[in-house]
Amino acid sequence: MKALSQAQFLASSADPAGLPPPGPPELAFAGRSNVGKSSAINALTGRKRLAFTSKTPGRTQTINFFALGGGARLVDLPGYGYAKVPRALREQWRTLVGSYVRARSTLVGVVLVMDARHPLTPLDVQLIEFLGGVRLLALLSKADKLTRAQQAKTLAEVNASLQAEVRLFSSLTRQGVDECRDLLERWLVSPHPGRSLE
Ligand code: GDP
Q1: 140 Cα–ligand 1 center, Å
Q2: CB 95 within 8 A of CB 87
Q3: Quick check: CB of 170 below 6 Å from ligand 1?
Q4: How confident is the model at residue 197 (pLDDT cuts 50, 70, 90)?
């Protein structure tokens, strides 16, 4: 059995001090709100409602942990980029997500979900800067909304600007789902390339 197909909810925390202690390798998912991150997690784990989004901006943000098969974990980071979010909540996101991605020694890779129509927004770039060399999969979501030609252009542009794996993805048509799942399964079993944490 593959690790991702055995996902089960483990824990949720709104506070960097309350995260489960690091243990098994973790694969984290990040992205702007409404970009299709929950749909991508559900498609990749083969579950209908494992991850779900709060449609209410301003609600408490949490990091959600799921146990995968083989002792790994999937980590769903809170979405960012709601236009009307108050400054205090943006600061809370920076503290929570920043402290997780910068300091988590067991993080083996990050899946950054970006809308294929608007990749690499300033907040996506900020997140990538937090990562400091962690393996990255840029998942270009909602690819079904682009023509073949637009898909090829976006793929080439994002590939040229990032040191990352880049894949077109659609939860709707399932484009890229099997390929991304295989890639992530490989990350979970391959030795961690190592990152320098202060
Ligand atoms: P999240 O806020 O990033 O977790 O986003 P959701 O997964 O909740 O998706 C936000 C909206 O985008 C929902 O209305 C989804 O139905 C839609 N959506 C998600 N994935 C896709 C996709 O691959 N194609 C299309 N066309 N819509 C999608």
Answers
A1: 12
A2: no
A3: yes
A4: low
For the CA atoms of the chain, what is the radius of gyration?
A: 16
Task: Measure 121 CA to ligand 1 centroid, in angstroms.
Answer: 17
The rounded distance, in Å, linking the Cα atoms of 123 and 10 is: 28
- 4-189 adopts what CATH topology? Rossmann fold (3.40.50)
Q: What is the 3-state secondary structure (H, E, C) of 128-148?
A: HHHHCCCCEEEEEECHHHCCH
Domain limits, the chain: 4-189
Interval 20-44: pLDDT, tens: 999 999 999 999 999 999 999 999 9
- Map residue 173 onto helix, strand or coil: coil
List pLDDT tens digits, range 85-118.
778 888 888 899 988 998 898 999 999 999 999 9
Q: Phi and psi for 179 in degrees, rounded to 5?
A: -65, -45
Q: Is the CB of 31 under 6 A from ligand 1?
A: yes
The total of other beta-carbon atoms located within 10 Å of residue 125's CB is 11
From atom 26 of ligand 1, which residue's Cα is the shortest distance away?
A: 142
- Return the structure tokens found at 106: 């067991």
**Are 117 and 36 within 8 A, CB to CB?**
no
Amino acid identity for residue 19 in this structure = L
